[in-house]
């Protein structure tokens, strides 16, 4: 198995087991310490200018906005249960401060199951230019991602 790429392990719509009564606490904790909607504990202030899609309607709205605005953008499709996604998210957030002309979006595949049903590997990065998806990158690697961002900025 390639450590830089994880096959999406759960079928769409199946959630990992959760303890009753702590969902609100988990969301509040993620809001305080991490990128909202990711469930990942990132230090405060390290989120850069990443937008987070926490639901299918939110992600559809962001995609529609990207297409109509014709802005250059990158979408990181990941999951909190994916170790590789957890490793690449902090650099992704950092790069959002370096590549100011790109819009950065994070979409959690379990929070947006309908919109991400065709995402088969996590992480997957989609690159948009002039409203069209122009590139796709599977897996992680900070230098690989930086090079791809440079190419599309």
Automatic annotation (TrEMBL):
Instruction: Tell me which Gene3D superfamilies the record gives.
Output: Glutaredoxin
Highest rank taxon of the organism: Eukaryota
Which InterPro entries has this protein been placed in? Thioredoxin-like_sf (IPR036249), Thioredoxin_domain (IPR013766), TRL33 (IPR044193)
Composition skew (Basic and acidic residues), residue ranges: 25-34
What sequence ranges are listed for the domain Thioredoxin? Answer: 65-146
One Pfam assignment: Thioredoxin
The UniProt annotation puts the region (Disordered) at 1-47
Query: What is the name listed in the Swiss-Prot or TrEMBL entry for this protein?
Result: Thioredoxin domain-containing protein
């Amino acid at each position: 198995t390639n450590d830089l790429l994880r096959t999406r392990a759960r079928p769409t719509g199946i959630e990992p087991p959760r303890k009753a009564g702590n969902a609100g606490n988990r969301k509040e904790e993620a809001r305080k310490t991490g990128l909202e909607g990711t469930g990942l504990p990132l230090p405060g202030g390290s989120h850069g200018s990443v937008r987070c899609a926490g639901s299918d309607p939110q992600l559809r709205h962001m995609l529609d906005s990207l297409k109509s605005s014709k802005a250059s953008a990158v979408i990181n499709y990941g999951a909190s249960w994916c170790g590789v996604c957890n490793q690449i998210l902090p650099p992704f957030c950092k790069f959002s401060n370096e590549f100011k002309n790109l819009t950065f979006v994070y979409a959690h595949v379990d929070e947006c199951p309908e919109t991400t049903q065709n995402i088969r590997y996590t992480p997957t990065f989609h690159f948009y230019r002039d409203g069209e998806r122009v590139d796709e990158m599977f897996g992680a690697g900070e230098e690989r991602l930086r090079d791809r961002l440079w190419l599309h900025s």
